[in-house]
Write a structure and sequence with these properties.
Blueprint lengths: L1 E7 L3 H19 L4 E4 L4 H7 L5 H9 L2 E6 L14 H11 L4 E7 L12 H4 L3 E7 L9 E7 L2 E6 L5 H16 L4 E6 L5 H16 L5 E6 H10 L6 E4 L1 H14 L7 E5 L4 E5 L16 H13 L4 H16 L2 E2 L9 E2 L2 H13 L1
Parallel strand pairs: 1-2, 1-3, 3-12, 5-10, 8-9, 8-10, 13-14
Antiparallel strand pairs: 4-5, 4-11, 6-7, 11-12
Helix pairs in contact: 1-10, 1-12, 6-7, 8-9, 10-11, 11-12
This protein binds 3-isopropylmalic acid and magnesium ion.
Length: 356
């Protein structure tokens, strides 16, 4: 199995290295042959080649069974032209690989629930999956950068969806719900937006015709943002568009107590891509204190969804739990009575647990 590694910028390098150590441990335990191809993406790629998404990176990703990504971006590239920003590479590779389905699970782990900004009785029991449309909507509609129009500085971005785009992401959400608690909450802004009214119509129709065994409700996005903090345990699968999913997944992640623990999968019809949901944290890059568990758990999702190996995925998830149970924490989660470890020590610990 061939895996393209895209460490990217900032802490990306350290957290991907820790995840690779864990993947190697799993490969040893289950007797799998993993082959890695490391490529550039983001600011480091821009510095080295003049573009944040080199052709070689896309070619390697397309030829692999899966991609593991760290993070991209940093203040160093804040002033490069919009088309060459590190974030543009992320959008570019999502589009190039056709990764229209972004899965962002959020579960309140008992080890960090006390760190949730919500009262523990509200946060406890939250276990949801955001299914975010990832290759359409306002991220990919026509962009007009600020320019003078009739003497007034004007800019615009277009939110556009087609029926097939809505159907394929809705199908993923309904199918995911069938394997979970059987409930989909579709989130839109149908009281204002035409694209949302079409979204709601299509999702409603699909539930009636194909997924009547799944419960469906609809929330406007503003209400959903409120419901997430009022009662996160009411959700099972949240189905939403690209921009609402971006915003709601940050909100949901913090409820879990730490953004450093949350993984994600981006899937299409070919190679899938896996990455932690946090960013490149340039302020702590190179210090060896970043939490690699979000990336390690993303590697677990990779085994589950792209490498079709549930046992390997489970082994990683169990090992992470065990290491948490034994009281090891990176500095972001450290507290009295717990054992503080570095990024790479955390990688060693999880790997060792797998090989136990
Ligand atoms: C995310 C990030 C990206 C997004 C940025 C970095 C382009 O916020 O994956 O949620 O908005 O999709
Ligand atoms: Mg985001």
């Amino acid at each position: 199995m061939r895996i393209t590694l895209l460490p990217g910028d900032g802490i990306g390098v350290e957290i991907v290295a820790a995840a690779v150590e864990v993947m190697d441990a799993v490969a040893k335990k289950f007797n799998l042959a993993l082959e890695y191809d490391k490529q550039l993406i983001g600011g480091c790629a821009y510095d080295a080649t003049g573009t944040p998404l080199p052709e070689a990176t896309v070619t390697s990703a397309k030829a692999s069974d899966a991609v593991l990504l760290g993070a991209v971006g940093g203040p160093k590239w804040d002033n490069v032209e919009p088309d060459k920003r590190p974030e543009k590479a992320l959008l570019g590779i999502r589009k190039a690989l056709g990764l229209y389905c972004n899965l962002r699970p959020m579960k309140v782990s008992k080890y960090v629930a006390h760190l949730s900004p919500l009262k523990i009785e509200r946060a406890a029991g939250a276990d949801l999956l955001i299914v975010r449309e990832l290759t359409g909507g306002i991220y990919f509609g026509e962009h007009n950068e600020a320019a003078m129009v009739n003497g007034v500085e004007t800019a615009s971005d277009v939110e556009l969806y087609t029926r097939p785009e809505v159907e394929r992401i809705a199908r993923k959400a309904f199918e995911a719900a069938k394997k979970r608690k059987g409930k989909v909450t579709s989130v839109d802004k149908a009281n204002v937006l035409g694209s949302s009214r079409m979204w709601r119509k299509i999702v409603t129709q699909m539930q009636k015709e194909e997924f009547s065994d799944v419960e469906l409700n609809h929330f406007y996005v503003d209400n959903c943002a409120m419901q997430l903090v009022l009662n996160p345990a009411q959700f099972d699968v949240i189905l939403t568009n690209n921009i609402f999913g971006d915003i709601l997944s940050d909100e949901a992640s913090v409820i879990a107590g730490s953004i450093g623990l949350l993984p994600s999968a981006s899937l299409g019809d070919g190679t899938g891509m896996y990455e932690p949901i946090h960013g490149s944290a340039p302020d702590i890059a190179g210090l060896g204190i970043a939490n690699p568990l979000g990336t390690i758990l993303s590697a677990a999702m990779m085994f589950r969804y792209s490498l079709n190996n549930d046992a390997a995925a489970q082994a990683i998830e169990d090992a992470v739990d065990k290491v948490m149970e034994k009281g090891y924490r990176t500095p972001d989660l450290a507290a009295e009575g717990l054992q503080k470890v570095s990024t790479c020590e955390m990688g060693h610990l999880v790997a060792a647990e797998i090989l136990q």
